[in-house]
Amino acid sequence: MSGSAVKVSQGVQLAHDDYALERVPPSARYGWWTVAVQRFGMLSALSQFLLGATLGMGMRFWDAVLAITLGAVILEVVAIAIGIAGMREGLSTTVLARWAGFGRYGAGIVGVVIAIALLGWFGVQSAVLASGLSTLLGGPPLWLWSVLAGLLVTVVVVHGFKGMAWVAWITVPAFLLLAGWAISVELSKQSLSALIASAPAGPPLDLAQATTLVAGGFIVGAVISPDMCRMNRSVADVVKQTVLGITLGEYLIALVGVLLAHALRTGDVIAIVTTTSGAVGTLVLVTATLKINDWNLYSASLGMTNALQTAFGVRVGRPVVTVVLGVIGTTLAAAGILDHLIDFLVLLGVAIPPVAGIMVAEYYLVRRWRPALEASRATGVLPPTAPAVVPAALIVWVAAALVGKYVTWGVPALNALVVAFVAYTLAAKIGLVPAAEKSSVPAA
Hints:
Number of domains: 1
Low-confidence stretches: 1-12
CATH architecture: Orthogonal Bundle
Helix content: over 70%
Mean pLDDT: 86
Oligomer: single chain
Largest sheet: 2 strands, antiparallel
Distance between the termini: 26 Å
CATH topology: Hydantoin permease
Number of strands: 2
Structural class: mainly alpha
Order of helices and strands: HHHHHHHHHHHHHHHHHHEHHE
């Protein structure tokens, strides 16, 4: 086989693998609107209605608007900062982490944590979808619905970003049309101005608590932005798709939830969205769940693919990892085990924001390994070496996660992220982060 044929074959394989362990070349990237639909799809989920209803039960409408604004700004700043790094380097979150604070083996740990957390939520979402389908349609037992729900998402994710983009173009408009119709029927029974002026029906919720709910609800999605933004073509594209996707998702979906809570005087608004009729309710449930759950599994597969290479030196194709993780998550959902692991998944969620703080600090301020990334970027390859592990980063990571867990003032997820950013920067200033040429190992 000729050299050019070998290169073509390798290129096809990398494309099929969605460049899980490589830089995404310019030719494989997408227009910002395609990526924005994916971002918005992650937020146009039933959980956003529930978030809005929670705010609506405890706050007046304009107070809820302020909380959503503050939470959305926090998410956008985090997502844009780390997303631009992912776009420039064309790397997923966990591969970028090798040169953004954690080192090769530290990035492997990051990959495992992200993979376990997102795989858990993949299973939870599959179980939620199964429960809804069972209620709406009856038929087979709940465990079988769980299997069907999990396998449906797995099939989509095996086809990578391209397949997920096609699904987004179908499910996001369908969800908005179907859910919008169901909601408009309910809200048309009351005066919009009266709903905006009405007092909340539940216990009061202060601004700090509400902002925490908004920012904390999607902070993991913001942290893993490189997984998505590596498909963008420019800094401007990252900013446009992030601001549009997050702003529309938070305002459009969450504020409707606020109005529904004021109209119905209850936080159980999802029933209104999903049970208007069997067919429509089923379609709303499927379209709302599919778009967020495919990203749960997709980012989990990227994290685990990186972890396998760093920990064991084994290159496994992302589609294979996707199938294995999809089967595991589906099995756990069908067995009902994940119902008992919610607290564990929430704990892992607290551990993920500091990752963004460390990566942003290293990439933009400390810059120990930024020159190596920039030097290799022009040739489209990875730097030949990476730090083996950065002990200071791991210590900061754990400390910041503990702050997020136990310091209840303000926004816990943001507290953890800011502490990680500041602590890592200080650690580098006092010489605890090694120079680029020290403790390096082969990058792959």
